[in-house]
Design brief:
single chain, binds NADP nicotinamide-adenine-dinucleotide phosphate, shikimate 3-dehydrogenase (NADP+) activity, 6-stranded mixed beta sheet, Rossmann fold, about 40% helix, alpha/beta
């Protein structure tokens, strides 16, 4: 695979919009998969301020962009500007992938599929699963959608604000398995949990030494439970280290990150893409970053 892509007169465009966008890892994994397929296509970061969202969409249509990823702060704001929004994106309340179709812009959300991929690889029967989801933000909504898709018997979302929990609950009015809980209720929920998902930022920089659950709380969980942290850096998080020490199955957020991207790229390209190449590109990127960080502490 060449490290530098040749841009021609026919090179087509994909990209990601956000504000800020400098931190995005999407170009790393998407361009690696595009290079592996040998396509004359490039995926670029586009900084788009909230006030310019509609103008950016018109510009993308004018230049024939094939599609784009959407990140903070546009995931909700873009929805009314699209021609069609998928049912899963409507349930989650956010769009992370937009495709150009004959009928205009089609928005969907690939996070739920990304979340499910590492679970499906375990090849289990999920019907009797009791999921406890820590946090009630955007990622938690994708997790709820994924758990609902697999038909979990109980989906219990834990948050700090009863108002925000009530709003999340309203997103799935017909989903009887979904209940919402304040953190104080955790001692009642943990002993019955068979899947625990961290969808809070607790455990990532600048809280890399923290865990959303205390040692005592982790010990209330049955050892056969699966611990799933959506955080992909650091790997493993404190939460997953605690789980592994207990002998539990631990899943980190890298698989979800790669899989949600792979689903989006295969939608734009209308062909399968290499998840392994995308994953390796991210691992190489992380290794390079930690090498640079090490060098800068040695040579400040
Ligand atoms: P978000 O919308 O900001 O939601 C964060 C949630 O965490 C909120 O419910 C927030 O509670 C809660 N929270 C924050 N700090 C907390 C604390 N100290 N104690 C308890 N709860 C706390 O963020 P998000 O987009 O859902 O992302 C959440 C995490 O998932 C991040 O670490 C992100 O990197 C990760 N993520 C990973 C992937 C992937 O592909 N692997 C995809 C998306 C997100 P309040 O609502 O009360 O503030």
């Amino acid at each position: 695979m060449s490290s530098r892509q040749v841009i021609s007169g026919q090179t087509r465009l994909l990209g990601v919009i956000g504000d800020p966008i400098g931190h995005t890892l999407s170009p790393v994994m998407h361009n690696a998969a595009i290079a592996e397929l040998g396509l004359d296509l490039v995926y670029l970061p586009f900084p788009v301020a909230a006030a310019n969202l509609a103008a950016a969409l018109n510009g993308f249509a004018a230049i024939g962009l094939l599609g784009f990823s959407v990140t903070i702060p546009h995931k909700q704001a873009i929805m009314p500007l699209l021609n069609e929004v998928s049912a899963v994106a409507q349930a989650i309340g956010a769009v992370n992938t937009v495709c150009r179709t004959a009928a205009g812009w089609y928005g969907t959300n690939t996070d739920a599929e990304g979340f499910l991929a590492p679970l499906l690889a375990l090849n289990r029967d999920w019907q009797s699963t009791t999921a406890v989801i820590l946090g009630n933000g955007g990622a938690a909504r994708a997790v709820v959608a994924g758990c609902a898709q697999l038909g979990f018997s109980r989906i219990q979302v834990v948050g700090r604000s009863s108002d925000k929990l009530a709003v999340l609950r309203q997103g799935w009015p017909d989903l009887a398995s979904l209940t919402v809980h304040l953190w104080e209720e955790l001692p009642l929920l943990l002993p019955n949990a068979t899947l625990i998902v961290n969808s809070t930022p607790v455990g990532m920089h600048p809280q890399a030494e923290a865990s959303p659950l205390s040692h005592a709380e982790i010990q209330q969980v049955q050892p056969a439970a699966i611990f799933y942290d959506l955080i992909y850096s650091p790997r493993p998080t404190q939460f997953l280290q605690q789980a592994a020490a207990q002998g539990a199955t631990a899943i980190d957020g890298l698989g979800m990150l790669v899989q949600q991207g792979a689903v989006a790229l295969s939608l734009w390209l209308e062909q399968p893409v290499s998840v392994a190449v995308m994953r390796q590109a991210l691992l190489d990127h992380f290794a390079q970053k930690s090498q640079q960080a090490l060098q800068s502490t040695r040579n400040p």
